[in-house]
Write a structure and sequence with these properties.
363 residues, alpha+beta, four-stranded antiparallel sheet, extended
């Protein structure tokens, strides 16, 4: 029993998977003008193996390059081994709970994304079965591996434009069937810089308990001038929860909430056109004409009109005929190629047989 327990313990240890935690870079983006100073912070080093912290730069579509390395223990900075072309423009400072990358005078060429990174050690445990005569023993051996874990990144915008907070809207998307899952659309627009980070929460209507929704249920769409996040909502839970979309931006955080009563039930056309009050009083007295029946009570008589003119668009049958003609031509080309190859093959066979028949006749 003791032997089986040891084997089971080793199996459990070997099945454990170590997940990499990201470093924390609180500012999603920073905007500075040319000549100003900027400081990019990085924190959350509990998963790091040692005191070494790397700062990296990614400009556009170029590869990511290491700028410098700083030691969180003594603050020693190493730049010479990485040969960054702008290494003299950067420095790093260690603080109590963070390590900051600093630029004293910002240039246009400094517009890029900056990431901090550190090394993490993972111990892998394996077990092997060893038979010694009639006894059964288990041998366990460990080995370590190291890899980099990165921060979420901070984008530096070098521009004279002021920071503008986004305009946030949340919409329910109507489904074609009541059985389909519902979706919420959170749109952020008219902001500068254009980088935002979405997060979703929901609050139960009865108990008032709120919870964060996992990012796996979220999909982001980026178009010109706006960024949207789509959240899939379970059909059975949409009526009992209140959903909120939070947008984090350099200019601040904005939250929009959608109540359960605002969810559409299905994609159906309205039964009557919406009515709206007049924007301004009439300028002339009404004429003495008989009242017309309401469109919702009786259908309006058809207005006389000319017969519709033939549409200049191409009929769908024409495109089908074109497709069939292209397929026929393609088939003919394939058949022609096959006939040509077969002819060449026959000519080669006949040419090889001719000398042998001449030699046989001579003999």
């Amino acid at each position: 029993m003791i032997l089986l327990s040891a084997v089971a313990l080793c199996c459990v240890c070997s099945a454990l998977v170590t997940t990499a935690a990201k470093l924390q870079q609180p500012p999603l983006s920073l905007t500075r003008n040319v000549g100003e100073e900027v400081s990019i912070s990085c924190e959350g080093f509990s998963e790091c193996y040692d005191n070494r912290v790397l700062w990296l730069q990614k400009t556009g579509t170029k590869t990511t390059r290491v700028i410098l390395q700083i030691d969180r223990g003594d603050g020693a900075i190493s730049k010479s081994s990485y040969n960054h072309p702008q290494k003299n423009d950067f420095t790093a400072v260690r603080k109590q709970n963070s390590v900051d990358l600093q630029i004293q005078r910002v240039k246009l060429s400094h517009s890029a994304s900056y990431y901090c990174a550190c090394y993490k050690r993972v111990t892998h445990r394996k077990w092997s079965e060893v038979f010694v005569t009639e006894f059964f023993t288990v041998g366990v051996w460990n080995y370590d591996s190291y890899y980099l874990i990165f921060g979420s990144g901070t984008r530096l915008f070098v521009s004279a434009n002021p920071v503008v907070q986004p305009e946030v809207s949340i919409y329910p998307a109507a489904s074609r069937s009541p059985l389909e899952e519902k979706r919420l659309l959170c749109v952020s627009s008219a902001m500068f810089p254009p980088l935002v980070r979405f997060s979703w929460r929901r609050r139960q209507k009865k108990s008032g308990r709120s919870e964060n929704l996992p990012s796996s249920d979220e999909r982001q769409l980026r178009e010109s001038g706006c960024t949207a996040s789509i959240l899939a909502v379970d059909q059975r839970e949409s009526d009992s929860y209140e959903y909120s979309c939070s947008v984090q931006h350099e200019g601040g955080e904005k939250v929009k909430t959608l109540a359960p009563t605002e969810f559409p039930t299905s994609l159906e056309p309205p039964t009557s056109p919406p009515t709206s009050p007049p924007t301004s009083p009439p300028t002339s007295p009404p004429t003495s004409s008989p009242p017309s029946p309401s469109p919702s009570l009786s259908p309006a008589p058809p207005s006389p009109s000319l017969p519709p003119s033939p549409s200049p668009s191409v009929s769908p049958s024409v495109s089908v005929y074109k497709l069939r003609l292209l397929l026929l031509l393609y088939t003919l080309l394939i058949v022609k190629s096959l006939v040509y190859c077969c002819g060449l093959f026959l000519m080669t066979v006949l040419r090889n047989k001719r000398p042998s028949t001449d030699c046989r006749q001579a003999g």
